[in-house]
Amino acid sequence: MNDLKWYEKPLRISAVQCNYDEDSYDILENHVYQGHFNTEQLFHLNAYGHTSFYDHARDAEKLKKYIKEAKKRNIRIILYWNTHCVEKPECDDHPEWIQLNKNKEKVTAYTNKYLVCVNSSWMDEFIDNFQKVCSLDIDGIFLDGPVVNAQGCHCEACQKQYMEKYGESIFHATYRDMVEFKVFSVTDHIRRIHHVKNKINPSLLVYLNNSSLRPDITGSNTTQVEPFVEMLGTEAGFAYINKFYSMYHMTPHIKYIETKAMGKPYVIFTAGDNKPSSYYMHTAAETKILYFRSVAHGANIWYGIHAPTSFMKNPGGQVAYECNKFHEKYSDYYLKTSSCNKIAIVWSEDTANYYSSVVSESDFTQMGGIGISEEKGNHSLSFYGFCQAMLRSHIQFDVIDEHMLKTDKINKYELIILPVCACMRDEVIESIKSYVKVGGTIFATYDTGLYDGKGYHLGFERIKCLFGIEKMKNKISYETGTSFVTTSGEYSESLSSEIIAGPLKVIDCTVQNGIESIAKINKPMAGRYVAFPKMDLDFLTINQYGKGKCIYCSGNIGEFIESTSYGDSVKLINNIIAKHANTMVKTNAPQSVEVVVRYQKEYNRYLLHLINMTGEMVRPIERLIAITDFEINLELPGNIYKVTALDDAVSFKLSGNTIHIDCLDDYAVLVLDLR
């Protein structure tokens, strides 16, 4: 793979995100180089405390000197560049740069800084500096931002541009138009940067902080900006100090960014600190989990701290160095790996934006929701519920979106899951129909397909033939503890009872004759402590469509799993999944062990990653508990004839395609050679 670009090889990126009057050359030597990073996202050399801007007259010479020292140590330099906020002096000098809310008040960030607008004259200043930066001997530029205020910017520049685009005042903008305008503004900003870069230095790596698995409330849409960057990145490794924050949520983000990268490299930003507490570092155990989950799924390492490098002396920091050392030693095994999964779950951008979804907490968003109502399901919670279920059962899956659904790339999947993918454009529905007709299987829930791409309700006629539904009646809401599901036969295998707890939202459907009903749900009960009702509503059905099948769940079961984590609900949907697709992995390992299978085409070998997350009952996890005596059976295209454990991290025995693991401490990689 000698023809690969430098950034297509495994990266370990250091990001010291502040300047605390540390000597920059001490950081380079003692943290970056000695810490086994091979790339630095350089911030501290030209930083104003917590904000970094490049000023050519001020920074060019000292940057050239620093680059020279970095190259002596074979360290690549990516220049960090803040593109979303300014300090108060810049705000006072250039008030026209600053984003304004609907009340024409300046929009702040991090309490004491101000968001800049990409449509303002700030952009001219930025482009002028950017042209000068591109001519320097750097390897790349990281653009931190841009970010648009969640309610949109209403500065004079945005007012003018909105009027030109839509022919009306921005103060009359609908929610849908504002989402579109924010995405347009950010994408146009990145497009301009891309064209400038290519004229001066086409080989330069440029990437930014892409949004992922959330509505486009800040304007950064991964699909739109992907053509204009060389690498994709997302803050999936920013774990918030909240005992309810699920460590499961990281993996779907990585899977999604891999799909969106379209073969380009991708990186997971992992913070060394518990967000938002910048000076409280992750434990050693959680650092290992965050690190190894990134690399197991083919992502590059990005490790950032918002504190002096002296904080690296704590256990979490020291573990980060150890992980870097391991990754450096075995970097060939992380080079150009890919998913080989036969199951995909859909993240719908349209549904997240225009139907109902949760907004995750970040520096620029507060925990909240879009389109939440009594009747609607919740796309993101349903999505995470299915992901949680599959991760807990070690089912191998990809995350795709409606853009991929429109292509023939979906034909590689045996099963596609549509968790309350309410908003669907006509072309997406037609593509799904074609996929099923030739033998594919879909698993859809609740409101899937009932709305168009902009969130307008159309009804069930457009998906009637797929799901085998004769009539959709009213939506039923249950009080907690009054919804029950019953099933039998092969789909009830390993359930604790034939009757299990059910979701709180269900559509009362009449299915066509001949449709297979595999689970029923009760009508609403008068209360909790009453006689048990009849189970007479269809809950899970299977319709033959062409050569393929459509599994339909009338309830929001994914959302129910995400909110309750009920094991029987997890088993039920995973029994269905396993019946209709190759899950690749069967194991008696605990749910807290993440199993990842990757394929390395260049060497025609498979890699089995085992990540132990077994620890205390609540976060932060202080210590990992070793897991002993479990087996993993793999369904691969051939027979395994040789297994090698990197760093002798585990002892094992091979019998056919079953691997017996004696003991797993934290992380292990098994190299699998097939006949």
Any overview of this molecule?
The protein has 17 helices and 34 strands. Helix 4 (122-134) runs parallel beside helix 6, helix 9 (284-296) runs parallel beside helix 10 (315-329) and helix 12 crosses helix 17 (567-580). Helix 8 links the parallel strand 11 (232-237) and strand 12. The chain has a nine-stranded mixed β-sheet, sandwiched between helices. It has an eight-stranded parallel β-sheet with strand order 10-9-5-2-1-13-12-11. The protein has a four-stranded antiparallel β-sheet with strand order 27-30-33-32, with no helix packed on it. It starts with 11 loop residues before the first strand and ends with a strand. It has four domains: 1-81 and 232-335, no CATH class; 83-119 and 138-230, no CATH class; 343-580, 3-Layer(aba) Sandwich (Rossmann fold); 585-674, Golgi alpha-mannosidase II (Immunoglobulin-like). The mean pLDDT is 93. It is globular, with a radius of gyration of 26 Å. It is an alpha/beta fold and 675 residues long. The protein is 28% helix and 26% strand. The relative contact order is 0.08.
Give the C-alpha Rg.
26 Å
Question: In the residues, how many domains can be counted?
Answer: 4
Largest β sheet strand count, sense and barrel closure: 9 strands, mixed
Question: How much helix is in the residues?
Answer: 25-40%
CATH level-4 homologous superfamily of the largest domain? Class I glutamine amidotransferase (GATase) domain
CATH architecture classification of the largest domain: 3-Layer(aba) Sandwich
CATH class of the largest domain: Alpha Beta
Form type: globular
**Could you give the distance between the termini?**
23 Å
Sheet-strand content, in percent, reads: 25-35%
